[in-house]
Amino acid sequence: MSVPRLRSSPALRSGARDSLPVAVASLLIGISFGISAHAAGMPGLAAVVMSAIVFAGSAQFAAVAVLSQGGSVVAAVLAATLMNARYLAMGFALGPWLKGGPVRRAFEGQIVSDAAWAIANLGQGRFDRHRLFGSTAVQYVTWIPGTALGVLAGGVVPDPQALGIDAVFPAMFLALLAGEMRDAEAFGVAVAGAVVAVVLTITAPAGIGILAAAVVSLVGLRPRRVA
Amino acid sequence: MSTAEKSWLVVGLCTLTAFGTRAFGPAAVTRVPLSPRLLRVLSLLPAALLAALVATNTIVSDAAVQVGPRAGGVAFAGVLIWRRASIITIVVGAAAMAALLRLVT
């Protein structure tokens, strides 16, 4: 399948620019993934390949965590897959804004990460695919070398936590969430989504919480009250 | 099976499931939905998902609620957002605050 050439556009560049701090975080989190994978006994090349083609930090950490505890292949894959469940919901929101037929859309849909999806979100249910591609591009080029560095140089790199890197993603999501607070209904949905996600993340298998939070948005199906 | 063999198998299978999970929505929703109700749901979806991502990435660690330095960093991000700071300032400020709180606690 030929990959359509994507010309540079202002949206592509702005998506990349807005994602630069995330790209730095992605490098450091990549390093810590490499270290974890190496410690779990995963071959270095397998860890790098996983970053390059699975490209989903939390799912990769989940799979490695299961492997490091001596869990089965099925358990590791299941943990990673559940962790990625939120991409089902994100894909539905994004779908209408991608290009081409189902097959091309399925491939364009691979370019999703949490941060890229959030950066591409223009509000009012609208998404800009160029911002999505720009955001993923800068994360991708740091995530893979980060993983390789972690595998090779584990132990000599700083602990991402000490640098406060773990606050980067939630801070960015919070900034984008603020832009979504258009009316009381959106605010209510956000509060309910947060509560559902936290409760289920603590009680249900990892990854289910965020997908379940998406279900809250179905309140939009209620018939509108005509004021 | 050795850990190396298991690892490669996990990578291969995760590739398939990750592809399917990301492909499903885009392949299923191939045009801008015309139903106003569906549009309403899709416009509320980011609020629900972003709030879920913020909450779980801020106060949940190891399947328990933990309010620590990271939550302090994200709270500081909230102040910066309210002061209309740029996204770069917000993110760097949150990381710096979390690092600082870790240093002093």
Automatic annotation (TrEMBL), chain A:
The record describes its membrane topology as: Multi-pass membrane protein
Gene Ontology CC terms, in alphabetical order = plasma membrane
Superkingdom, natural source: Bacteria
Q: Does the keyword Cell membrane apply?
A: yes
**Protein's UniProt keywords contain Plastid:** no
- Sorted UniProt keywords: Cell membrane, Membrane, Transmembrane, Transmembrane helix, Transport
* Subcellular location per the Swiss-Prot or TrEMBL entry: Cell membrane
InterPro entries, per the entry: Brnchd-chn_aa_trnsp_permease (IPR011606)
One of this protein's GO BP terms? L-valine transmembrane transport
Membrane spanning stretches: 20-37, 44-67, 73-95, 132-156, 162-179, 186-219
Q: Which family does it belong to?
A: Belongs to the AzlC family.
The entry's protein name is AzlC family ABC transporter permease
Organism whose genome encodes this protein? Baekduia soli
What lineage does the source organism belong to? Bacteria, Bacillati, Actinomycetota, Thermoleophilia, Solirubrobacterales
